[in-house]
Amino acid sequence: MWTLLNGRVMKNGTGVSTGSSVAQALILYFNGIIYAQNSSGVWYQNGSPWKNIGTIDPRNVVKPSNTSLFYGINGHMAWGSGIYNTMTAEQQLAILKDLGVTMYRCDTADAGMSMTLAMALRGAFAGSGVGIMPVLNPRSAGWDPKGTEAAAYSLGYDFAVRCTQPLKGLVTHIECGNELDTVGLQLGGDGSQTSDWNPAEWPSFRGVIRGMIAGVKAVDPTIKCGVNVGIPMAYRALQMLWNGITPNGTATGVSGAATLQWDYTTYHWYHSSGKIECAGRNNACINVLQVLKDSFNVPIWLTEWGWSGSADSATAQSAYVQETMASYYAIKDKYNIESVMMYAVIDPSYGLIQGDGVTKNPAYATFKNFIAANPVKTA
Fold first, then answer.
1. Are residues 96 and 215 in the same domain?
2. Which residue spans adopt a coiled-coil conformation according to this UniProt entry (predicted)?
3. Which of 152, 274, 282, 349 has fewest C-beta within 10 Å?
4. From its phi and psi, is residue 59 left (phi > 0), alpha (psi between -120 and 50) or beta?
């Protein structure tokens, strides 16, 4: 039993340190978690040690903004260094509002990063019409691509729980992993064949994604989970996960593994890969969007798209943005594309804004003007 006696948190009659020398003023049980607030208004979350979570009341859960999902962009709000760290949430939101985007894709690799996103959602972003879609990054949380499926599942589950808890009630979608297929998993080919994938590393790949989805759903079953690949023609990897197929060096692999299914398919596509509706080597002209639609029959999110970095001139960047946005806007209903999220808002090679966070590339105006001229109804 938890009590508060003379400003001290007690558990079953024994004093519990909150990591603060300031007397406690309030104890709270909310959403299955014990919190304590000190007399200075700072909240702590139960743990070993107790964690300082700031001055926002954990009961002050802000419902996700009723936003349109379609126009989005990537950023790194929760990074601990660099331009995103020096810019406030208010400053980043002002750019997003000026552009007209309504979804902000931001990576998280621990509870602290998720808390940064949560504070923004409860603060500047609350009621703004701009939502945040977190993407979980187990590559920064100790995931071993060569480990066992059981170990990867356990890591993915625990990692997802830690990252999702601060975001409960604040986000509607979470992407479980970012380009995990690019870490030694591909043996050869272009990724479109079962035999292109490494049997030795496949169990860990599958396990960590299964664990992340289970962890997110354990915290909040209403959050929709997405899964992506980073290799342009790696749709076969997604098909294998969905249908419980493990690569074994043959064209068809071996069936019988646990299936892994998700709420929306996420995919990455850049200028350097050509046309997504006519892709592949040797003029194969494979319609990747049609493959994704037919294989999974769930909404598609293009969570990264962009030009070819410094290989494209400023003029080429702007032209590519105009052409690509027009194309995705025209086909969104045909393929059930719910969101297209450009990479990125600020980046020295791929950003609408250069690395200083101030200087706008010509593509900035192209991107902004297209959204203004082609609104998408609120979801």
1. yes
2. none
3. 282
4. alpha
Q: What pLDDT, in 10s, does the model give residues 185-213?
A: 999 999 999 999 999 999 999 999 999 99
Tell me the pLDDT tens digit for each residue of 262-287.
Answer: 999 999 999 999 999 999 877 789 99
Q: What does the alpha-carbon distance between residue 339 and residue 379 come to, in Å, rounded to a whole number?
A: 11
Domain membership of residue 61 (yes or no) is no
CA distances to 53, 157, 169 from 42, in Å:
7, 29, 21
pLDDT at 336 exceeding the cut of 60: yes
Secondary-structure breakdown of the chain: helix, strand, coil percentages, each rounded to the nearest 5: 35, 25, 40
Task: Count the domains in the chain.
Answer: 2
Task: Give the rounded distance of the alpha carbon of 237 from its chain centre.
Answer: 19
370, 299, 303, 379: which is closest to 334 by C-alpha?
A: 299
Read out DSSP for 81-103?
SSHHHHS-HHHHHHHHHHHT--E
Identify whether residues 8 and 137 lie together within a single domain.
Answer: no
Do 50 and 78 have their domain in common?
no
| R_g (Cα) of the chain, nearest Å | 22
145 lies in the same domain as 290: yes
Q: Which residues form the domain of 269?
A: 71-373
Instruction: Looking at the structure, tell me whether residues 38 and 137 fall in a common domain.
Output: no
CB count within 10 Å of CB 34 equals 17
Question: Nearest 5°: CA angle at 360, between 134 and 320?
Answer: 75
Does residue 307 sit within a domain? yes
Type of residue numbered 293: K
Residues 83 and 161 in one domain: yes
Question: 203, 194, 172, 180: which is closest to 299 by C-alpha?
Answer: 172
Same domain, 238 and 157: yes
DSSP class of 67:
-
Using alpha carbons, select from 173, 139, 132 the residue that is nearest to residue 155: 139
Q: Are residues 50 and 150 in the same domain?
A: no
Q: Tokens 């450009």 sit at which residue? A: 342
What is the domain-level CATH number for residue 102? 3.20.20.80
- Location of structure tokens 């250069």: 354
Residues constituting the chain? 379
Per the listing, tokens 């410094």 go with: 310
Distances (CA, A) of 26 to 55, 56, 58, 210, 311: 13, 14, 12, 38, 57
